[in-house]
Fold this protein.
Amino acid sequence: MQTVQRPPVPAPMQPQATRRQHPIARSRYLPYLIVGGAVGLGMVLMIGAIAVVVLLMLANPRLPEGVTVAGISLGGQTIEQASAALTPLNNTSVTFTDGDRQWSLSLADIGVSVNAEQTLALAEKASTGAALQPSYQIDMSQAQTGLAYLSTLANITGDSRTAGRAMDIPVTLSRLNADVNGELADGVLELDMMVVEPVAPEAGQAYTGTTTTHVVEPAQELGLIAKRYGVSIQDIVTLNGIDNPDIIYPGQELLIPAAGVYEPTQADAPAPSTSSGKAIVVSVSTQRIYAFENGTLIRSHLVSTGRAETPTVLGDYAIQRKYEADDMAGPGYFLPAVPYAMYFYQGYAIHGTYWHNSFGRPMSHGCVNLPSDESRWWFEWAAMGTPVRVVA
């Protein structure tokens, strides 16, 4: 009988003992974990706070300390705060002078305001403690309106024997348009003034015994009133018992020894360049403009042509361009929105004028000046190509 050998049965493995960590060993590091976490959290919060501050500073930069603009302290302010602080400067007074005479208007009165954006851009780049002047911007139409008002205060009315003085508004406007910051840097602006030479009354119709009542308007004097009615100054003086012909005042009623406003006759007017259709003649000697249709005089009015240093061109021309309002500029002068401009040669035009009231005297830089309301009639009547003759 054969015996079967069986493999030995291994002895069962003894389970290893599990090592247990004592609770006291783990709790020994807990405070360090808490402190480390707190420190980390604090650093994160601090970095976040710094980031917020930096972002706020970038979004709302502040001007360097000690910076002033026109004496207003802006140092340390945000752009928004500094912009608000500049607003009162728009009402700063400007002193206008003519020799020892002077007048004051605000910046706003002459269309000037502080350009806050440019001013603050300069302030941002300035060094600590810098004292700056504001940067200005100008509305030329409002500037013109303000200077026209100022002219009613500054102009001196002359008469047939004494020269007057009148603001040359186009020249002053040109200066402001070219460099408003430089002109107003010290708050004083010397006015450009013209000497208005005396004018002799125009020869006209004889006194007929009838009279017309005339109410004196601002800036009028006897020479211009006499020219308007075609009578002599002495006739007006005698009829009204005027002791001093140099002294008349707005609102004064004068008896004029004439039946109505003087209108030149066909014989008084220079001949037009054509007897067919419409034609315009401007006379420098009589300071008048004449309208003709088919050789017949239909209308006339006083004008102001160029002064001696800027004379109106003589010769035969024609209306080349027409604008209801046009900005005019030339050597040393600037005028915005001149009404009813009709150019007849290069920059020479017949146009409306609101910056002076001395029609009947040379006052312009070469153009033919008419009162604004009168110029509209000529603008609507004269077509493109209408002949214009300018005579001495």
Remarks:
- The chain has three domains: 68-196, 212-256, 278-391.
- Residues 30-59 form the longest helix (30 residues).
